[in-house]
Write a structure and sequence with these properties.
Blueprint (H helix, E strand, L loop, with lengths): L1 E4 L10 E4 L9 E11 L1 H6 L17 E9 L11 E4 L9 E5 L4 E2 L6 H5 L2 H14 L7 E5 L4 H12 L3 E6 L2 H9 L4 E4 L7 H14 L7 E4 L6 H6 L6 E4 L11 H7 L2 E4 L2 H7 L1 H16 L7 E6 L3 H9 L6 E5 L3
Parallel strand pairs: 8-9, 8-11, 9-10, 11-12, 12-13, 14-15
Antiparallel strand pairs: 1-2, 3-4, 3-6, 3-15, 4-5, 5-7
Helix pairs in contact: 3-4, 3-10, 9-10
Length: about 325
C-alpha cells in the first residue's frame, strides 16, 4: 500500500510517498481502508520534531481518518467489516490502510461524508472540550474567538452558537471574518497581522472589548497566541475564562497582574491528553457532537482537498495559515 512518510526531520517538502506492507489486525484491533485524512496544525509540527510526541521514523503524519473497516481482529465486538468509521490514531493516518484499537473507533452517521468524518473529531473535539468542560460556557455569555476561521476556531464559533453564546469572531483578513460570520458568529473583527507594539496592542484591546457589546467577553478562545494574547486578556470581563488552545503566532508572555485585577482564570486546553486520561468522557462528548451534527447545528467545513500523493501540499497550505475551515486529504479506494 502507499504511505506518506517522514524519514528525516523537515517541513512538508521532506515527505515522501512509498510502498509499505499492509497492516494486519492484532487482537482488539481493526484495519481501516482509509478514505479521508483530516490535516491539523500538529501535522505541521510533528514532522519537524516540534510536537509533544516524537514518533520513531519512518512514520506517517495524519492524526485523524475516516474510512471503511476492512479487517477485524480477535476479540473485537460491535464493529464489523464494511462499517463506516472515524478514528484518531494521533499519527500514521496518511496511508491507504491503518490498524487501530477497536475501542477508539467511532461509527459514522450514514449522512456524513468521509471528508466530514475526517474533519470532525480533532477540531470539534478540542473546541467542545474547551468550551464545555474547561470554560463551562453558559447560554447568554459572550465568547471571543481568536483565529476564528481556522479548524478549531471555526468549530468554536459553531459550537459557541449551538451552546447559546454571543460569539465574536476575530481573524486577520476580511475573507476569514466573513467565513466565521457564515459559520454563525454574531460579530466579527479584523485584527492586525504580524507583530504589534504596545500602542497597537492597546488599540486592539479596546476594539475587542467594544466588539463584545458589553463589559468584555466572558470567555476567550485563543488558538493564536503571540501578540494577541495580552490585548484579549485586557478586554475581558470580571470572572472571565481565558482558554489557551494553541500558539501559531508564538508563545506569549502573560502579565499575571491582569488576571488578579479582573479575577480571570487562565485555562489550558490539552485535548489529546484529556482523551487519554478519560476516554469515557471523550466518548460522551463525541456522542454530543454527533447529536449536534444530526440536528444540523454543526457541520464541518472542508475548504480544500488534496489527493494522497499531494499530502505535502495539504500540510504546507495549513502551515501557511491561509486555510479556512479544514483541509482534507482524500484516498482513492
Amino acid at each position: 500500500m502507499r504511505a506518506v512518510l517522514s524519514k528525516t526531520v523537515g517541513g512538508p517538502e521532506s515527505l515522501v510517498v512509498e510502498d509499505v506492507l499492509d497492516p494486519t489486525p492484532k487482537p482488539g484491533e481493526v484495519v481501516i481502508e482509509v478514505r479521508a485524512v483530516g490535516i491539523n496544525f500538529p501535522d505541521t509540527l510533528i514532522i519537524e520534531d516540534k510536537y509533544q510526541f516524537k514518533p520513531q521514523r519512518p512514520f506517517s503524519p495524519g492524526a485523524e481518518i475516516s474510512g471503511v473497516v476492512e479487517g477485524v481482529g480477535e476479540g473485537v465486538k460491535g464493529i464489523f467489516k464494511g462499517d463506516r468509521v472515524i478514528a484518531v490514531p494521533g499519527w500514521g493516518g496518511l496511508v491507504e490502510r491503518i490498524a487501530v484499537p477497536a475501542a477508539s473507533v467511532i461509527k459514522m452517521p450514514d449522512a456524513m461524508s468521509f471528508e466530514e468524518g475526517a474533519a470532525l473529531v480533532m477540531t470539534y473535539g478540542t473546541s467542545y472540550y474547551a468550551l464545555k468542560d474547561r470554560a463551562q460556557l453558559k447560554a447568554g455569555e459572550s465568547l471571543l474567538v481568536l483565529g476564528a476561521a481556522g479548524g478549531v476556531g471555526s468549530a468554536a464559533v459553531e459550537l459557541g452558537k449551538a451552546m447559546g453564546a454571543h460569539v465574536i469572531a476575530t481573524a486577520s483578513t476580511n475573507d476569514k471574518v466573513q467565513f466565521a460570520l457564515e459559520m454563525g458568529a454574531d460579530n466579527g473583527l479584523i485584527y492586525p497581522a504580524g507583530k504589534m507594539d504596545k500602542t497597537a496592542q492597546k488599540e486592539l484591546s479596546g476594539e475587542l472589548k467594544l466588539a463584545s457589546g458589553r463589559d468584555g467577553p466572558d470567555v476567550v478562545y485563543d488558538a493564536v497566541g503571540g501578540d494577541y494574547c495580552e490585548p484579549a486578556l485586557r478586554a475581558m470581563d470580571w470572572n472571565g475564562r481565558y482558554l489557551v488552545v494553541g500558539f501559531p503566532a508564538g508563545i506569549p508572555s502573560l502579565p499575571l497582574n491582569l488576571t488578579l485585577l479582573k479575577s480571570v482564570s487562565v485555562i489550558g486546553v490539552f485535548w489529546g491528553a484529556a482523551v487519554a486520561r478519560d476516554p469515557a468522557a471523550h466518548m460522551a462528548n463525541m456522542a454530543d457532537l454527533l447529536a449536534l451534527y444530526a440536528e444540523g447545528k454543526i457541520k464541518p467545513r472542508v475548504s480544500r482537498t488534496f489527493p494522497l500523493e499531494r499530502a505535502d501540499e495539504a500540510i504546507q497550505a495549513l502551515g501557511d495559515r491561509t486555510a479556512m475551515g479544514k483541509i482534507v486529504v482524500t484516498v482513492e479506494s
